[in-house]
# Entry
Amino acid sequence: MQFRISDTFTDSLTRLTAEEQKFVKITAFDLQQNPANPGMQLHRIEKSKDKHFWSVRVGRDLRLVVHKTDGSFLLCYAGHHDKAYQWAERRRLETHPTTGAAQWVEIRERVIEQSTSAATKTDTVVKPLLFKDLCDAELLGYGVPAEWLSDVKEADEDSILTLAEHLPAEAAEALLELATGGKPQPAAHATTADPFSHPDAQRRFRVMHGVDELEQALDYPWEKWTIFLHPSQRQWVTRNYTGPARISGSAGTGKTIVALHRAVTLAREHPDSRVWLTTFSDTLSNALQTKLNRLISHQPRLAERLEVVSMNSMGVRLLERHIDKDKQRLHIASTEVIRQAMADSLKLVKAEKSNAVLMRFNLNFVTGEWLDVVDAWQLQTWEQYRDVKRLGRKTRLNEAQRQTLWKIFQGAQATLDKANVMTHARMFTSLASKLGTLKIPPFDFVVIDEAQDVSVSQLKMLAAMAGVSPDGTGQIRPNSLFFAGDLGQRIFQQPFSWKSLGVDIRGRSRTLHINYRTSHQIRQQADRLLGPEVSDLDGNIENRKGTVSVFNGPMPIIQSYANVTSEIDGVKTQIDQWITEGVNPHEIGVFVRSEEQVPRACEAIKTAGLKFRILDEYVETNQGDVSICTMHLAKGLEFKAVVVMACDDEVLPLQSRIESVMDESDLEEIYNTERHLLYVACTRARDKLLITSVKPASEFLDDLLTNKRS
# Structure
């Protein structure tokens, strides 16, 4: 007999108190050891249409629902007596007649019976039926249960989301994709007689091979433990690409999961290769490593050939490995050191030559010009700077202004050289020259997550590792570079042309449109911060229209207060309500724009009487603690409920960034990245979202409340 758990069981477990969860887990472990334990009180659920449902008594009012046959023992649901029985009475376990996958099928008449509070339509406009032209065979091919075919054919744009909640995931996702003009692949047909072995069944049912595996399954939320790859995304994971490829899509569409599986697939299919899975920060690489550990926890030999290291950390490692032994070792310059070198040089040039040109240049502008143009592209001569196209820098500069700036840059670079330090850009550019001459690269395949924030010099190094020579000749080897990212979440880098560096993804770029992480209501509101499509400088377009979420949730709450004290009280009240509704403290994240607003968030959680943890670059959350961090650290995180606090007028966009602008044309880029930051913070929420501010509120909140950008 195989012992299995269902995702519905782990989902229901999270809604119980810690004490109740402990008792349910003890019962689950006992059942795994001996499902026929005579000490267990099992009762058949008589009103269920599936006669294999049984109730197991856990406590006075606590029940565990199991599905028991001669060959299978399945943990299905945990909850209080009435809710547990109601859950079983409105479902049955079936093998789909077309796909052969094991499915939970909600019993249609029971669903309708229990929907006694359904809203009555007042809209007399008849809307077109979305699937009326599809035959039964087509719908069955997508995994739609037979008894729901008539309801599917009657669905319009108002009812599709509600209907999708009652269908198996593969059917709901296919219908949502059809509704937005997509062409989903029919569900795979079973290749064995076991309905639980079907790919769609494996996303909701798991065989437990021992106590340790069951303990892990009950400790992790289902979606984080399984790292499930949707069958429709598998084609992008397994495909052979003739050159560099990129997967894009808005937040929650599964880009990171595709990247993870792509890295594992490459390592598995090329047993003599080395694979590097990377991203732009240590924070995100730590999160990737955690997910990878869950994905290949039982495959240690595979893990030996698959490294998860951030771009900067790997750069330092490679530099130490390939540096000339007779050269003095250089260290990486910190942001503070660079800024101080620039400030000293600016002060010195102003003292030597005070004129109207210099009066226009403040420290923020000079540092930005050097980082985004001179250092990014590693310009070594005045002629190179004079002739360069200053992509992303909107303030126009004449030749005289550039000459003055070049003198400042020369002074700053001399200071850095004297201190024996180098920038990351210089490090990666040096590595590109070195790696381009190697016959055997350090890695055969590189998979890059959050690729929208890859820098110029980092891309140069990646291109060199993949086959582009230092002189620009050569081309990227097949399958050697795979990018996953979202231009709408770019918050660290100025835009630049990938094609100019030999990385041309045209024809090998795909956009994902199904959102698995964020509710329809949160995704729809957050999308208002961005335009309907985003494009890069090479003409590749990411169309954000047509993205759909696979589940519903409450509408986000956007609230402005008269003062900080009132905001803190408002956040406390909302968190109290979430806790009452069953949200655990560690399932709540609070984000603010910058470090200055962190104490405000801490005070709100203190007022709510909860413990909290301020996340650092390692982004390690604590069981039982609310997580607090800045929006920049929010990348890669997700929570059941999120509060985005302190969205005040001079906080978002950040006033110091606005004041650093010398020309109004530079404001566009600042506003775009600040919008992206708020978008990132909002889309960390799965089910519930609260956005607060002190009046006057950020103008971005007006965009969230209206749809004017689309």
Q: What stands out?
A: The longest helix spans residues 399-418. Confidence is low (pLDDT under 50) at residues 116-122. The longest strand covers residues 685-694.
